[in-house]
Recover the amino acids of this structure.
């Protein structure tokens, strides 16, 4: 009964077009993000090995590590937000 | 209260869409005057509301950024505006399709609601060029925040001005939801919730991606890759 009162009668192409456009926009966005994520994953893999090597060299004393972090580009770089 | 994670939000969004779409097509009755084309209402109007709220949210985050100087707020403001721009494109396209189906024109320049939304979109289209024209990250964030606040304040004023205008060619949605039949009202509320969840999920997704890229960039710099 519900179905019979909600079935399309005319202009259904416009409705389909509107919903398709919306889902296409969302899909395109998600696809772009997926491509970017793939790039990030590749980069992480590239960095993986040297990062592990470097972490092994980091001094264990917390104050030394903190001082090193203060001077590192991380602080300035992380402000480059977008 | 624990903050919802990206995974929780994603699941909730999918569930909301699983409820929203059947409600639109199988539960909400066909409107007497417009017929089946009125189903675009459940897409176009929630999208427009979420878009405008996203712009205002961007302004609120920008206020938090200027108050705290915490770059996280600037990032949130940027993402809210960025996502609202994407949703806004959807509003313009679905609105044009609806206009052509109902009025026989893709665009009606004499209709204040359409033109005012276009003005808001054009205003925000300048946000990213303005932002990325500034090299210094501190200044970039500060100027972008000022822009987001001013433009965010313009959005509700613009909305009010249109509501006070004399033309009633464009359907008045917020003032007439109480007049909607119950099935249409429920469907509209569910569609609004689904759009809001989608917006929140995509914002979280974008934020997570941006944070990862920033961390990766700084890590690369430490290791001397860039």
């Amino acid at each position: 009964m519900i179905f019979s009162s909600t079935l399309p009668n005319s202009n259904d192409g416009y409705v389909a077009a509107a919903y398709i456009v919306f889902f296409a926009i969302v899909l395109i966005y998600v696809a772009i993000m997926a491509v970017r994520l793939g790039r990030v994953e590749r980069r992480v893999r590239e960095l993986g090995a040297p990062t592990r090597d470097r972490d092994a060299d980091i001094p264990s004393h917390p104050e030394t590590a903190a001082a090193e972090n203060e001077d590192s580009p991380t602080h300035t770089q992380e402000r480059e937000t977008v | 209260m624990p903050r919802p994670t990206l995974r929780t939000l994603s699941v909730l969004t999918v569930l909301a869409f699983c409820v929203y779409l059947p409600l639109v097509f199988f539960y909400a009755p066909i409107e007497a005057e417009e017929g089946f084309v009125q189903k675009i209402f459940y897409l176009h109007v929630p999208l427009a509301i979420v878009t405008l709220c996203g712009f205002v949210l961007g302004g609120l985050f920008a206020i938090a950024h200027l108050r705290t100087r915490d770059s996280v707020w600037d990032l949130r403001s940027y993402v809210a505006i960025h996502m609202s721009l994407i949703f806004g494109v959807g509003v313009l396209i679905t609105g044009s399709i609806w206009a052509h189906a109902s009025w026989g024109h893709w665009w009606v320049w004499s209709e204040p609601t359409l033109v005012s939304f276009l003005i808001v979109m054009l205003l925000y289209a300048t946000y990213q060029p303005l932002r990325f024209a500034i090299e210094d990250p501190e200044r970039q964030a500060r100027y972008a925040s000022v822009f987001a606040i001013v433009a965010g304040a313009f959005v509700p004023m613009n909305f009010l001005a249109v509501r006070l205008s004399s033309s009633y060619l464009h359907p008045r949605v917020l003032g007439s939801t109480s007049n909607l039949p119950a099935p249409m009202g429920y469907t509209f509320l569910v569609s609004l919730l689904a759009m809001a969840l989608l917006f929140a999920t995509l914002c979280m997704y974008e934020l997570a991606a941006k944070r990862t890229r920033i961390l990766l960039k700084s890590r690369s710099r430490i290791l001397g890759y860039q």
